[in-house]
Structure formats: C-alpha cells, structure tokens
Queue: 4 jobs
Job 1
Amino acid sequence: MKISRVINSFFRSCSYVINRDGTSWVVDCGDVALLLPLIDGELRGVFLTHAHYDHIYGLNTLLEMFPAMLIYTNEAGKVELLNDKRNFSRYISDPFILQEPEKVVLVEDGHGIDLYEGCQAIPIFTPGHSPSCVTWVIRNAVFTGDSYIPGVKTVTNFPLSDRAQAAASELVIRDLIAHREVYPGHAPES
C-alpha cells in the first residue's frame, strides 16, 4: 500500500491518495488536478475527515470523472455536504453542495470498511473541530484531518465546534498514533 500526499491550494489542506494493485482511495478532496496523476486505476471512494469546504471542494468534479466512487462520512458530514452554510463555502463565494447525495455512505464509529484483502479503513469519530470529524485508521496510518495537527491547537471557534469534545478527541487520537504514522488535514507553513 502506497500513500501519497497532495497539498491543496486552499488553506494548504491535505488530500491523500492510497494505492494498491490498480485501485485507489482518497482521503479528503481538494485540487482534483493534483490528485489525478496519483490515482492508479479504479478510484473506489473518498474518506472524509470532515466536511468543511477546504476538505471537500473537489468532490463534484471527482464524481464526474469517477461515477462509481463512493463518499464515506458520518451523518453530520452528510448534512454539511448538502448545506453551503454548514460547510462554510457560502462565506468564500464558492458555494458547494454535493451534487450526488446518493453516493454518500454513512459510517459507524469503529466499523471498518474493506479496502483490500486483509486491509480495512476504520472510522473513529473525533468531534470537536466539527461534528463531522472522523479519524481514519488504515493499518499503520492515521488520517486525523483537523482533529489533530501536530504542534497546532485544534480550532474550536466555529459554529457547532466544541472545545471539550475536541480535547477528548485529541486524547483518543494520541492513543491511536502512539505507534502509527500521522497524516493531518493541513500542511505546515514552512
């Protein structure tokens, strides 16, 4: 399994492409033009760490190119995908609403999704930054989104953010990353 990182143009958010045996999966979706060269063969789906605009803005374009792909998130994530106020795109003059809501697969906390034989993506709900936050554990990799960015305090001043939940989620994530590699939702400035 190979993991590649893309640093997107909007807020330096990160997307990741996971490849193995001619199939690909994406974690968060920003600049599609940067993702495409990394996608090998069939794109099966996109795992969302949360549904704020800087982590979802390429989804409609990606769905046009890969109509069989699915989008994995929790119930709060689906609500945000369908509401430009909740995903904050309304405030940056680029309203985003997912065009194909039937492609959303709602995940349950701790219930894995099969990626490859013997390999699952396990969603761990880590709210605080947003109710839609999901940390994804795939073997030795932990995709934390904005719930945990090493050396950065979790942002909790958005509507529906919750400082106490963010602190509890960070404790869960710190346990998850004890012996794993961290793949956060934003790249450092330097």
Note: The mean pLDDT is 96.
Job 2
Amino acid sequence: MSRPIDRARTAVAAMAPAGLSLVAVSGGADSLALAVAASQLPGAFGAVVVDHGLQPGSAQAADRAAQQCRELGLDPVLVRRVRTRPDEASARTARYEAFECALESTGAQRILLGHTRDDQAEQVLLGLLRGSGIRSLAGMPAVRGAYARPLLDLAREDTEQICAGAGLE
C-alpha cells in the first residue's frame, strides 16, 4: 500500500489544472496536509487562508497557517478576513465569497479543499439525518466548477501522518 503523502500528491496532481491553483488552508491537519502535498509537486500552487474572526485568537491562527504555507514554498499566500454570523451557513457563504475573490485577484484556475473521507462520511450522515434522502448518499463531489477535493480517499489520520512527516503541528 502506498504512503498517504504519495496518495495525496497523486490526487492533487490529477486535480490541479495547468496554471495556478490555490490550497484553502485553515491550519488544521487536513488542509495543511493538502498544502504539503501541493508544495512537493511541480506547478504553481498558492494558498488562501480565511479568518472568520469568530474565536479569540483567530487572526493569529490564520497568520500562523499563512506562515506555514510560505515556509512550504506556496506562493502567493493570501489571508482573507471576513465578517460573518456564527452559524455554519453564514460562515460557509463568507468563506466561498472569499475564495471567489481569491480566484479573481490571482487568476487561479482552482481552489483545492482539504475534505477527507471522514468529512465525506459525516456529510452523508448529516444529510440523511436532515431528511435529504437518497440524494445525500452522493456526498461531496470530488470536483465542482473551480473547486476540487483531492483528499476524499484519505482518512483524517492519514493527514495527521502527512503533517507529522513534514514537521507540522
């Protein structure tokens, strides 16, 4: 069986078109593992970090995530600070608006999102609990428009292993 970093690199390479792609980085293991994989590939990879400002210290956490991306060699690295209500729907809307602005300002072709197999399972279960029926079984698509999720075949523990291998917390 191949190592998680090898699987991540292969998936990123398959989903990153020619030109600039941006990795959406929150500072968690999933998105940092995605940044590590992208940084080890030829091509142009940058990052976008969105600070929702909903928790004390969020600005420092966003700045730390951006610094880790710079240390990995991603360029450009953008930090977008947004205002949102504390509910998930508002935060998601603000995040995707920031992603759209990042695509436009950089000319990037794609935003890579760090969702894993664990997130996919959670999404399906939540959909079923909300009564979405059989439609929720499809889960998150690997690619939709400018957005791609290369890590859907990896578990969260795989991303933690990738980060540990790269010396990231």
Note: The CA atoms of residues 46 and 75 lie 4 Å apart.
Job 3
Amino acid sequence: RSGSVAYELTRPTDLYWFWFSRALATRTAPVLLRATPMFIVAGLFLGLQPPPSWASAAAWLVATVGALLLACAFATLMAISLLWTISGDGIARLLATCTTVFSGMILPLPLFPDWAQTILNVLPFRGLMDIPFRLYIGHIPPRETLPLFAQQLAWTALLILVSRWILSRGMRRLVVQGG
C-alpha cells in the first residue's frame, strides 16, 4: 500500500532474506529483553525449575532456535502475501489463530484426542511451542529430539522455498506507481 517495496527493491540484497532477517530481528530482540527478566523472576520467586538435565537444556535451546527460524519463515510468508492483498489482517489473524490452537498455547497437544495427534504431529505449528516447552520440562527425552529438530528444519525449508517461489511470481506482476 505504501510503495515501500519499491525502495526495498533498490537495495543490493535479496528481498526474501532481507525480509527474513528483519523478522528474525523483530522477534529476537524483544523476546530476549522480556524473557531474561521473566526467567530470573520465575526462577527466584515462582518456583520455575531448570530443565531436568544438561542434555534437556541443550535440546531446549536447539528447539527454541528452530522455533525462531520457523516463526520467521511464517512471518516472511505473511509479508509476501501482501503482494496479493490490500490488507494483511486476514492472513495474520488466520495464522495467529492456527498457531494459538495447534501449537499448544491454549491446550497442551498431548491432551488432544488420539485421532488429532496424528494430524498435530505433522503440522508445523508443533515446532513453534510444543516441542521447545516439552523439552524444557522433560516430557520429551533428549534422545528422541533428532526427528523433532528435523521436522522443524524441514518445515522451515519448505516454507522458505514456497515463499521464495511466491515472491518471484509476485515480483513479475508487481507494478509500482508514483514517484
């Protein structure tokens, strides 16, 4: 709507990775600034326990980085969708709702019925919240993490490939007016 994509096209960088990097920065800095004091307060006053082992802690850190990359791939796909829509509110609300329900934010995924477990285990949303949290509290043993990390990275790679394809199609039909 604003035409800022024309300015971004003049930069000597790949547009997709520029948007991905921006999503990475806008997610990492605020989370680190909020999460660090929250972990300290929760650990000192609210009884937050550390992961059950060093292996669980390492697995949690790796899964958290994987969740960050996956979230940035989703955010970049949402930004690219603006090439076809006037407002990004619809896709943003749809994705936020799907993420909230299917990532375990409202109801932990193990509490869903058995028939839903198969579907939930395949969807990418599990890699955003469920996997890191369950690794932190020890519900998933560290020896079972390799397939989970592979799933996070596979969904991230797939979203990146689809996003780049959609972006290349959008750039072919993009018309910038004004000046």
Note: Helices lie at 4-9, 15-45, 54-81, 89-102, 114-122, 130-137, 146-173.
Job 4
Amino acid sequence: MCDLVSSYPEYPLTGRNKLIYGWIPSRTKRLLDGGCSWGYATKFFQRKCSKAYGIDPNPIFVSIAKKRYRHIKFKKSGLEKIPFSSNFFDIVVLADVFEHVENERQTLNEVYRVLNTNGKLIVTVPHKGIFQFLDSDNIVYFIRTNLSSVYRALYKIRKGKTPLLNPGYDHIHRH
C-alpha cells in the first residue's frame, strides 16, 4: 500500500480548490468534502474548520487519504446516501463531483439533509462550452466503451495491469 500511496500526487492549493478555500468561512465547525478523492484538497479546507470529513466511493482513494491525513475523518461512500446524521455540517463542498453522481436529485436531497439550517453548499462543475468535446474523461469513456479491447490492451501495456473502473466514471461526464 505504501507504494500505492506514493503514486498519487500531492497538489498545491490552486485553481478551483483555491477559489473554494476562499469561499469557506473561517471558524467553520464541520465541513464535508464530498467526492474528496484521496484528500489532496481536503487537507487545505481543514485549515478553516474545527473538523473536516471526506467521503469518496473509491476505497483505494479513501485508504490513501486515511494514511496521509490522520487528523481528517474519511469514509467510503457515495453522495446518494451520506453516512452522517441530519443537520451535521456547516459546509458541504462538491468540487467537480456533481457530474459524476448517479442520481443528482437524491444527491441534493442528501446534501440538504446533512447541512444544518444555516449551512452552505459550495459546488463547482465543468463548463459546458465549445471545447467540452475535449473533456479527457469523456474521451476515455468513449474509447473504453466503443473500443474496449483496444483500451484494455493499451492500458495493460502502459500500466502493466488490467484497468479498474473507478466509481462515477461509468457514464458520460456531464457538463
């Protein structure tokens, strides 16, 4: 697992995560980073709150996050059934995650349920513009579904193993 942990990079606070960081009020009590991946942005968000939590449906990502950031609570979970009690969070962050969920309505209902009365939802999503066809997730999805044998062969050559499908990447990446 140690080698696996080192294969996932640490990122600086840039781009959308930097914007989100600026939108999080200081002295927030509890924050949820929904779809936190391996926690590379959650570690920054945690600086503005008493307690940070992260959920992700990918068990490998959650395992890596737990090893790297022991002061943050991470759980394996999708957003359609958030494993926390109602009115628990002051802030919920969905940073480029909403386009990956299976059920948008159920996800929003769950976010609403876990947010306290004065809670805030911070959402970023990909832009639907003239270059959306260049979305790398959709290019890979197209190759994986329409040229599956080519995809598997190229993946095996490049990575030396059979590809696994990450949760949330089994459908078109919506903009």
Note: Strands lie at 28-34, 49-56, 73-76, 89-95, 115-124.
